[in-house]
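Case study: Integrin beta.
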Amino acid sequence: CGGTEESQIDTTLRRSQMSPQGLRVRLRPGEERHFELEVFEPLESPVDLYILMDFSNSMSDDLDNLKKMGQNLARVLSQLTSDYTIGFGKFVDKVSVPQTDMRPEKLKEPWPNSDPPFSFKNVISLTEDVDEFRNKLQGERISGNLDAPEGGFDAILQTAVCTRDIGWRPDSTHLLVFSTESAFHYEADGANVLAGIMSRNDERCHLDTTGTYTQYRTQDYPSVPTLVRLLAKHNIIPIFAVTNYSYSYYEKLHTYFPVSSLGVLQEDSSNIVELLEEAFNRIRSNLDIRALDSPRGLRTEVTSKMFQKTRTGSFHIRRGEVGIYQVQLRALEHVDGTHVCQLPEDQKGNIHLKPSFSDGLKMDAGIICDVCTCELQKEVRSARCSFNGDFVCGQCVCSEGWSGQTCNCSTGSLSDIQPCLREGEDKPCSGRGECQCGHCVCYGEGRYEGQFCEYDNFQCPRTSGFLCNDRGRCSMGQCVCEPGWTGPSCDCPLSNATCIDSNGGICNGRGHCECGRCHCHQQSLYTDTICEINYSAIHPGLCEDLRSCVQCQAWGTGEKKGRTCEECNFKVKMVDELKRAEEVVVRCSFRDEDDDCTYSYTMEGDGAPGPNSTVLVHKKKDCPPGSFWWLIPLLLLLLPILCL
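Here is what the predicted structure looks like once written out:
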């Protein structure tokens, strides 16, 4: 039985539409129903574009380029639709240890000419005024934090749930551009444990009057499944614009979103406009329809005769045409080994059949568990059931103390269940199955395995919240990895591709590749994930720190000449020629006050001075002609004497 709330699609309207809008369906266990679903995506529809950008110090050149591209962004949007809005938000990370340097001077200004650290801030709510967008963007400055992963997940969640603050319009296509060059923190990844933040994210909006996220100190980052669910709920399509360095992280992440896009940014984000243009075209040609909030007793599948299905489960579509889809709704007979009629909470619910760009069909679905006619015609103590049960509606319902398909297994005596008892346990089959004729028949349709149903295939090791890293399957309590992966949770690639440096070598020759990661021989604050020196992270005052020790050791001059020169904790080596600046950690030049000459030196290694560090000093000083001007008055004094 069922009812339909029909609604005619109007192809003249510039918004996504679906018919029917509502449906009521009731099924018997094991029964299926099929119905048609019409979906219309217009050639042109309103678009809301919100740019969410990483504001850590390494993204400074990206921000500068974005400030110059306001007009180009407007051009791309105008090609999509005449009705668009554009907004901007920024994020760094939680302002707490270990994510942020909590020294007072760093909380005020983590880098020269930078803003104080913050988690997330809505800078420009969605607006039609491109000039306002450009003008507000000009005043923005970069900020900074300590660890490489950023707090972008906090920002994505707030952008999704703070509908009014961001300015999402109800009937527009919502696009969220996420721009970064770093990996991401996620729920329970360990960083918040060190910070003392243990509470889960409550998935609510927490922006103050300035648009700043306020609960960064009290709530954990959200998980990947949480973001997937919330972005789908609010019809938001993510576009991940990331650099080549962080591409591998987001290559996997974006596949969990029904409709999304991933593109590689150049190091300074100069290609962001072209990247967005490509992403828009890909997204507009695909449509995803999936069932949300479905009870466990009901299964929904969507197919189409008109449009080809993509590898990710969405459909290729032609905008401006009405697409016709077939929906199959099936009522299961058993859920985790228990008949569905014994599970009231799994029998009914409001299934939300939702396309990518609109709210979709709300389906009131349920399973009928009233007594059937065949149940009134049962064979009591039937021979088909070994005289140990009743034959009802085509199957045996065993009497107490008997089990099995034909009720031929006694469950009452201790001797019968003894083979099903695991050592040290008092429940047959670990409480996860039924003992039939001395053998365990596990519940859960494959969830439990083993002689005593002792293995739970939902309890294998996880990585980033995903069972067996989504790179294998759980069997007998252990992950069975796909080809190319290994490790207890299938999180170790056998390939060393992620350890290859920019020169094509492994770990820049400063470490070895293990489990897809470089393990550097000499760990330093200044080496990155492939053991490459991160020159931008070197202390900006390193030249000044080395100056006095270089001066006294190389030339015997300066403020440390004499005994205090022995306090210097590194060695100096005089050389005929110095390497170029890009080949060393730092190259420095200073004037020696004693002779007005300039001396130069470089430092190699990891940028941390110590007993094993060597500073290379150029043997020859650069002395300007002015250094000999003192001879002129002397010659004037001696000239009369020489003429005698």
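For the exam, be able to explain this: The chain has six domains: 2-43+287-367, 47-284, 371-409, 462-493, 497-536, 544-627.
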